[in-house]
Design a protein that fits this description.
By secondary structure, this protein is of the alpha/beta class. The protein is built from 10 helices and 9 strands.
């Protein structure tokens, strides 16, 4: 059965919700998601699994940038994590199950899995939490094995491969070659590609765009927007109101 990807271009995509640090609305917060829903934007968000097996909505591996606490998120239980506030706010790091209740199918979700584990604990728990969710969603990751696991366990779920040229990323040379060139696409068979607009134009993306839907990340201003429109089918955006009317 052919998957319907139309929802991925139904509106622009709010990167980690409609956050605005100047208004103390922080990324991946409940308030940022509510604002995206109010504006009818697709929501992109990030998931980690932590020490007690809870799945939380947060981007970084380390808590310092957004809470001031220099600890790895995976090393805390949710009881500990829930006591921390996002900087300059009364907001906390939400559980994924609570975010699903807030979104409740009102807008589509693009879920990024932050996973490099061979145990697939995050993937298993995310699929469990989504089992009875009635809204529209897609799952993406930089880790091709993560989305391959999703495809094998839930073949009807729409999956995307995140990529970039990783020019300024410190990683093993072999790993960079594999991820940059998306060498596991033949195995993963992603439904769409999410690609770093800083790495565009790209001959590989031009070729892939003949058969795959291309999302560009992260558009932050009008210059980025003009560039992304040239190479991508849709855009994962911040500061949306500044350049999209």
């Amino acid at each position: 059965m052919k998957k319907n990807l139309d929802f991925l271009t139904s509106s622009v995509i709010a990167h980690r919700g409609m956050h605005n640090i100047n208004k103390n609305i922080l990324e991946n917060s409940i308030e940022a998601f509510r604002l995206a829903i109010k504006n009818n934007f697709i929501i992109e968000l990030d998931l980690h699994i932590i020490k007690d097996g809870s799945v939380v909505v947060f981007h970084d591996d380390n808590l310092k940038r957004l809470t001031g606490v220099d600890k790895k998120i995976k090393d805390l239980n949710y009881d500990e994590l829930s006591r921390l506030k996002l900087i300059n706010t009364e907001d906390y790091i939400p559980l994924f199950k609570d975010v699903l209740k807030v979104i409740d199918g009102k807008v589509p979700i693009i879920i990024e899995l932050k996973s490099d584990s061979k145990s697939y604990l995050l993937e298993k728990e995310v699929l469990r939490l989504l089992e009875n969710y009635k809204g529209i969603f897609a799952i993406q990751s930089f880790n091709p094995f993560s989305i391959y696991y999703i495809r094998k366990k839930s073949p009807n779920v729409i999956i995307g491969q995140l990529s970039s040229d990783f020019r300024n990323k410190k990683m093993l040379k072999l790993k960079k070659i594999i991820l940059k060139n998306m060498l596991f696409n033949y195995l993963v068979k992603p439904d769409f590609i999410s690609y770093d607009i800083r790495s565009l134009p790209s001959k590989r993306i031009k070729k892939l765009s003949r058969t795959k839907l291309i999302l560009g990340w992260t558009v932050k201003n009008n210059k980025d927007y003009i560039k992304a429109k040239k190479y991508c089918d849709n855009f994962i955006c911040e500061n949306i109101k500044d350049y999209i009317r």
